[in-house]
Amino acid sequence: MPIEVVDNAMEGRFEVLVDGKVAGFAEYRLAPAKIVFTHTEVLPDFEGQGLASTLVKQALEMSGDTGLRVVPLCPYVASYIKRHPEYQGLVDGSVGG
Asked: pTM of whole model > 0.85?
């Protein structure tokens, strides 16, 4: 089953697609030079497949590639960054994380 992560800027969220269908999303708000992650959700039919990790990993990488500093208000994004210290460098210094 093909899995893809896309930035749906019109909706203000990264989406994880499974076979072309939205299976989950990580909502964000843009601020000057920052991306504020506010909520991550995987739809019930797709839970337990590791999609949240795939989604957040790709969202962090895409954000870093554009030079945005990450503000992890979403508890899942914050815990993902704590478990994967290679992403600590993306976190905005004015935010504890």
From this structure: yes
